[in-house]
Structures are given as structure tokens and as C-alpha cells.
Amino acid sequence: MKKLLIGAALVMGAILYSGYYQALEDGDIETILFIKKHPTWQMRFHNIHANDGEIREVERLTDEERKMIIDYCRYRLGLDTALRTQDDVERCSIK
Q1: Which long-range contacts (C-beta less than 8 Å, at least 24 apart) are formed by 27-32?
Q2: How many CB atoms lie within 10 A of CB 11?
Q3: Largest CA distance in the chain
Q4: 16, 39 contact by CB (below 8 A)
Q5: Measuring CA to CA, which of 5, 20, 47, 74 is 20 to 30 A from 29?
Q6: How far apart are CA 63 and CA 37, in angstroms?
Q7: Residue 52: CB partners within 8 Å, gap ≥ 6?
Q8: Which uninterrupted H or E stretch holds 28?
Q9: Which domain of life is it from (predicted)?
Q10: Which burial class, exposed, middle or buried, applies to 71 when counting CB atoms under 10 A from its CB (0-12, 13-18, 19+)?
């Protein structure tokens, strides 16, 4: 029973603190794994900077796109943003 509880705790920790997104690298789609800065049940994220030409003007983002960027920024990079300016979008990129 003790081993089962330890195993369940490890699985929950892995889910809460690990995430991934997919990026186009040299013509192939790669899965990029990362450790989240904050725990969440969400595991799949969307990095708009991972694929060239995908970045859009902040004024033209849909509510869904805005939420995806805010989630990526918070959980992948540890940045809380309201995503009001183009600089906020650029700040969410990994250099």
C-alpha cells in the first residue's frame, strides 16, 4: 500500500510539474518537454514562437489564442502577463 501511495504521488507530481509543446524543427515536428514554473493539470501548451511566421499582432489575437499565450507564459516561463501589448507577446519568447 505504501508503494502504491508513493507511486501515485510521483505520477501526480509528474503531471502537475511537466509540460510539452510541439515545434517545427528542420521540417520535422518535435515534442519539447519542460518543467512548469507553477503546478497545473494542463500538460500540452502552445508556443507561438516555436514556428516561424506564427506570431500575430496582439490586437488580432482571438480570445483562445490570447489564453494559450498567457498559459504558456505563466507555466513555461513563470511570467504573468495580461497580454495587452506586442512587447508582452515578445516577452513570452525564449531566446
Answers
A1: none
A2: 10
A3: 54
A4: yes
A5: 74
A6: 23
A7: 24
A8: strand 28-35
A9: Bacteria
A10: middle
Q: What residue has cell string 507564459?
A: 73
CA 71, 93, 26 angle in degrees (round to 5)? 110
Kindly report the average pLDDT of the chain as a whole number. Answer: 88
Grid cell 514554473 in the structure block, residue: 37
Taking residue 21's Cβ as centre, other Cβ atoms within 10 Å add up to: 20
Residue-wise pLDDT tens digits, 8-28: 899 999 999 999 999 887 788
Quick one: cell of 21? 509543446
Say how far apart CA 24 and CA 39 lie, in whole Å. 26
Q: What letters, b where the CB count within 10 A reaches 16 and e where it falls short, cover 25-57? A: eeeeeeeeebebeeeeeeeebbbbbbeeeeeee
Query: Distance (Å, rounded) from C-alpha 88 to C-alpha 60?
Result: 14
The total of other beta-carbon atoms located within 10 Å of residue 16's CB is 15
